[in-house]
Automatic annotation (TrEMBL):
Name the UniProt record assigns to this protein: F-box/LRR-repeat protein 15/At3g58940/PEG3-like LRR domain-containing protein
Transmembrane feature ranges: 20-37
Residue ranges of domain F-box/LRR-repeat protein 15/At3g58940/PEG3-like LRR in the record: 127-255
PANTHER family, alphabetized: CYCLIN-LIKE F-BOX (PTHR32212), F-BOX DOMAIN-CONTAINING PROTEIN (PTHR32212:SF461)
Pfam families from the UniProt entry: LRR_At5g56370
Keywords of the record: Membrane, Transmembrane, Transmembrane helix
Keyword Membrane included in the entry's annotation: yes
Organism: Lactuca virosa
Amino acid sequence: MGEISWTSEFLDLSSFRPAYSSPMTIANVGFYYVLGFSRKFAFRKARDYHLYVLNCISLTRWKLLWTSMPCLNFSSWQFGTLCNFAKFVTHILSHHNHPALVSSINLNFLGGAANHLLLKKIAKYAFSHNVQQLNVVTWPVSNLVNYPPCLLSSQSLKHFTFSCHVTPTRIILETPLDFPALTTLHLSGIELCGDLFSKCVSLKDLTVEQFVVEDDLEVFDIIAPRLCNLRLIYGSGFKLINVIAPQLENLTITDCSINYLKAPPGLSSLCYTGYPLMRLCKVGFHSLNKATIGLFNYHSIIRYKVGDARKIINMLLKLHSVRYLTLNADIIECLSSFPDLLSHYLSPFSNLICLTIDYKDAYKVKMYTEVINFLLENSPSATFIMKLPKGC
């Protein structure tokens, strides 16, 4: 019939597209709509909704429909007490044993010891029913919380998101995740300790954001043999990050305090934005297709130092194989502040097809000829593009 998502308030029909418009299909859509309630006619109290469901399930047709929904969304915010929420979730899970498998479970809940018991129950249901996707958003009630043990291992889970949405709360993850079938992982609001991903042998897409690394950890290893895409966003505490992922193709790092990065030399795409720039491994990249490098727009607050320019040049030297290069205006302005420094280096770019300078976030546009000439010296036929701010 289509994919329909359950929530404790309504069924989302915004993306529902029936395969055909037979009377039976239309009737089923009507049942789903009435059962889930539209936003306009939804009951305001979860208690009223719970009583309504209890009255409805006595009808075989209603029960067949609501116990066969492929996507379950639970949110504790719509319930006055944890007890009511726990009863509601228990009721749904205990009656949801239709042969049609549940493909996805989403949980948004207020943290605490009691809710961790509920989380354990949901995790047990998800893993025992071979649920493919599990998304958990937690709002802890204390500043330091240990990662829930019930979410450390699953043989069937393929897509997993775990997010902590309370700042500066951190969920401490010390034990390696054991998800051999997992292909997509998204972690947010986590404190990372040691090797955490090596048991995720099928992992292809990893995103970690709003995170810190354990203070005593000198080297943080990301070991994932099949990893293709890695995104590190708003992280701190790195001294050295060592990416052991021979199949890694795309690496994105945004505002992470990384001193030193070791990444696979076969990387195809690198996107880095931050201040100050990190140092790359000595080998560099031998087949880089695309690179986007940017400093944050701090020039109105602090003056660039010669050390900043040296870091930029050292990074550019490691990107010597790149074909499509994008630099933001701050990179160009920093290099132009020390023109004598460029005279000591030859342009590393002999394979460049396109050079793009992004001025979109710059407060003013300047053309620094000596810097552009340095970048294009060994690729005179490369296309040169300037992205200007609106109004220019």
